[in-house]
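Quick illustration, no need to memorize.
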Amino acid sequence: MTINTKNQFFWILIQKNLLFLLLALLLTACTTKTPFKIESFKTTNGWGYTIINRDKILIKQSIIPVITETKSFTTQEDALKVGNLVIEKLNKNLSPTVTKNDLILLKIKF
């Protein structure tokens, strides 16, 4: 009885490569994205927010966006609400722009 060792060798080689590929895929799938951090800061006449990723400032917003006046957020909570909305958009790979409708929905006083 003759066993084809050439076919067995290639089958073992394919199994090892598939195992390696599976492990590589598992490792890349398990890596988490670095989360965005938000910090509020006091301005001369209100509050603003900063969005940070990997210790780098991505967005520093000291005024309320999309309104005609140059006003800071009235409260720290308002600044953090808008900052969290921007982070949600960034996590969904959407544009981080804020609309007037967003401000109304978040009940931001402006």
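The chain is about 45% helix and 20% strand.
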